[in-house]
Amino acid sequence: MPTNDIVPVLPPVQLAEATAELFEVDEYVRASQARDMFQVNGKGFGAAVLDTGANVDHVDFAGRIVAKGNFTTDDDGDLTNVQDGNGHGTNVAGIVLAGQVHMGMAPGASFAPLKVLRNDGGGSFAIVERALDWVLQTHATYNISVVCMSLSDGGNYVNDDFPGNSLRAKVQELHRRRVPVVVAAGNEYFRHQSRQGMAFPAILRECISVGAVYDANLGMFEYPGGAIAFSTRPGQITPFSQRLHQSVSQETHTDIFAPGAPVISTGIDGPYGESVQQGTSQAEPVVAGVILLIQELYQRTTGSRPTVEEIVTFLRRGALPIVDGDDEHDNVEHSGLTYGRLDAVRTLDAVRRELVKRRLARPAQW
After folding, report:
1. Rounded to the nearest 5 degrees, what angle is found at the Cα of 245, between the Cα atoms of 209 and 227?
2. In b/e form, how buried is each residue of 319-337, taking b as 16+ CB within 10 angstroms?
3. How far apart are CA 182 and CA 206, in angstroms?
4. What secondary structure letter does DSSP report for 149?
């Protein structure tokens, strides 16, 4: 069973020189190309980011913060003060929807920063549940269509057999309401002796789980906990990223991989700040941002939002294959199994093709 405590997020990796811009993530998954081809940017849709808060004064979010809530004891528990004293939440939110200094995946989308992790990175799932309750009560009011959670319990599970888990019940209700909860797979692959699995809550089948790959040749990295990448190249699975193949667990496997190491995004140092961080925490918001684009395209055509199952189908149809162990050069073991890596153009084209197919399948109206 998962614990109530959330493991502090993977510490930011500060580089001596900036070597990986958010535009490299954009270029690798072809997000800006997809936005141009399909004329979408997330406008009219929004993300609730459950994290360490956000730099609400940053120009990247100007005019698009529709609501906010502090569920921690930071700042004396001031319910409206979501100021980020850590930087993780601001970096994550920027990847989803930054729109000025940095350019996120869905730069037209709105934003609800929900502070569920303290400035030291810790927290509890009881606090996360309170924030999910808030989303359930207000998502229609604020057009929140995606929930981002780059947090975990540090565990490694192959199934979601957690009877009576109250957090899962809230995720299930959001799932029913077509509000996907996108979750980082976890950063503890090395610590768990290269065993397949994912952390909680990513392991929940109702969530969309995201693992991390590199998007460029960035040299060597050593990570807290012991994982080492001796060299890197685009599409390599990071040595810290937890993963679970569908041949091991058909119902709870890792849904998609996306670039998450390292990423320069929005930062907490003033209205133009930027930060460098890496982890499945950074891969998760890449996928969340593309989901906002999926929702916009789908609703523009059909008048309604896609189900979470449909979103996962589109992500998988559009994914490019990556093999766990074909070109990785690190200190963890590999399965040789094939996973899917996000490609925004292919994903949105999968949406388009499916909607065309449905239209053609309808009988002619006389």
Report:
1. 75
2. beebebeeebebebeebee
3. 9
4. E
Q: Is 60 exceeded by the pLDDT of residue 355?
A: yes
Using CA atoms, how far apart are residues 286 and 261, in angstroms rounded to an integer? 12
Query: Which residues is 243 bridged to in the sheet?
Result: 197
Reduce the secondary structure of 242-297 to three states and give it as a string: CECCCCCCCCCCCCEEEEEECEEEECCCCCCCEEEECCHHHHHHHHHHHHHHHHHH
Domain range spanning residue 110?
5-361
Residue 351 sits in a domain of what CATH number? 3.40.50.200
pLDDT for position 361: 86
**Is residue 48 pLDDT above 50, yes or no?**
yes
The predicted pLDDT at position 17 comes to 40
| Distance in angstroms (rounded) separating the CA atoms of residues 273 and 37 | 30
Is pLDDT above 60 for 20? Answer: no
Question: What is the spatial distance between Cα 139 and Cα 175, in angstroms, rounded to a whole number?
Answer: 12
CA distance 261 to 213: 7
- Compute how many other C-beta atoms are within 10 angstroms of the C-beta atom of residue 273: 18
Exposure on the CB side of residue 210, measured as CA atoms within 13 A: 31
User: Strands 208-214 and 123-124: what pairing?
Assistant: unpaired
pLDDT at 24: 86
In a domain, 66, yes or no: yes
Tell me: the pLDDT tens digits for 216-239? 999 999 998 899 999 999 999 999
Rounded Cα gap, residues 191 and 197, in angstroms: 12
Q: Are 196 and 157 in contact (CB under 8 A)?
A: no
Asked, for residue 366, whether it belongs to a domain, the answer is no
pLDDT on residue 25:
94
CB-side neighbour CA atoms (13 Å) of 132? 24
Q: Using the predicted structure, report yes or no on whether residue 366 has a pLDDT greater than 60.
A: no
For position 8, what pLDDT does the model report? 47
* Number of domains composing the chain: 1
More confident position, 229 or 363: 229
- Give Rg (Cα) of the chain: 19
